[in-house]
Amino acid sequence: MYRSYYNLAGIPFEKDLSVQQIFKTSALTEFFSRLEYLKQVKGLFLFTGVPGAGKTTALRAWVEELKPEFFKPVYIQLSTVSTYDFYHQINKALGGQPC
Fold first, then answer.
1. Which pLDDT score is estimated for 33?
2. What does the chain look like in DSSP terms, one character per residue?
3. pLDDT higher than 80, residue 82
4. Contact 2, 8 (CB under 8 A)
5. What values do phi and psi take at 62, rounded to 5?
6. How far apart (Å, rounded) are the C-alpha atoms in residues 48 and 42?
7. Which pTM was predicted?
8. pLDDT tens string 33-76
């Protein structure tokens, strides 16, 4: 019902939303600018926000723009793992030797 009322072509807020369909707000543009700065200075970051704020979608959009020959994004699905398991997952994703 809301889709026809707002004349939406698809279901909004789906996890598989294509990057081209993301609405570029000023906050998203600012977020991309900050990530570009971190990329230039080779920095680390912590990205937090309330559930449903669009953190994963924003990161997914930014990661899709990275050149794979220079960057290897690593997604750690579970943030409740031990420190050892966290580093183990990163090592494995980057093709490192098992410890």
1. 94
2. -HHHHTT-SS-TT-TT--GGGS---HHHHHHHHHHHHHHHHT--------TTSSHHHHHHHHHHTS-TTT------S-TTS-HHHHHHHHHHHTTPPP-
3. yes
4. yes
5. -70, -45
6. 19
7. 0.68
8. 999 998 899 887 878 888 888 888 888 889 988 999 988 888 87
